[in-house]
Amino acid sequence: xxxxxxxxxxxxxxxxxxxxxxxxxxxxxxxxxxxxxxxxxxxxxxxxxxxxxxxxxxxxxxxxxxxxxxxxxxxxxxxxxxxxxxxxxxxxxxxxxxxxxxxxxxxxxxxxxxxxxxxxxxxxxxxxxxxxxxxxxxxxxxxxxxxxxxxxxxxxxxxxxxxxxxxxxxxxxxxx
Length: 176
Prior knowledge:
Layout: H1 6-28, H2 31-47, H3 58-77, H4 100-114, H5 118-129, H6 134-141, H7 145-159, H8 167-172
Helix pairs in contact: 1-2, 1-3, 1-5, 2-3, 3-6, 5-7, 6-7
Protein name: ECF RNA polymerase sigma factor SigE
InterPro entries: RNA_pol_sigma-70-like, RNA_pol_sigma-70_dom, RNA_pol_sigma70_r2, RNA_pol_sigma70_r4_t2, RNA_pol_sigma_r2, RNA_pol_sigma_r3/r4-like, WH-like_DNA-bd_sf
Family: Belongs to the sigma-70 factor family. ECF subfamily.
């Protein structure tokens, strides 16, 4: 039995859209493809609202659908990615409320994450940015928890030389 109204479902969908788009970006590596993938995901979700029994899981459900849509597109269409050499071109990660130095650092962190292989990007985004547990991430990506932990560990090791608690230290050490 469904324990929520259409308005509650619509609100849950709306609140999940930024996280869904970021996840789509982590899969596709392109903001244009992320837009398309998010739209396809929302359409599929709206066609299958009868599958939702609790609005608290809508965000995870959307990400699972997004992953499925992405892989279906890859298989069915042999999707060609036409994007610039800069994987974060056209993506605005800066916030107006942060100091300029922090905005530059946020962009550099984002560029480092986007340079990771897709499997690592997805895990980093879901665990470290979106705050999903390892178990939730494993369910969304349909992989074992051990694989989530392994990919996250690998991603952290690859990112570690590029990141610091203090962005000024990173610049002075010449890591960028």
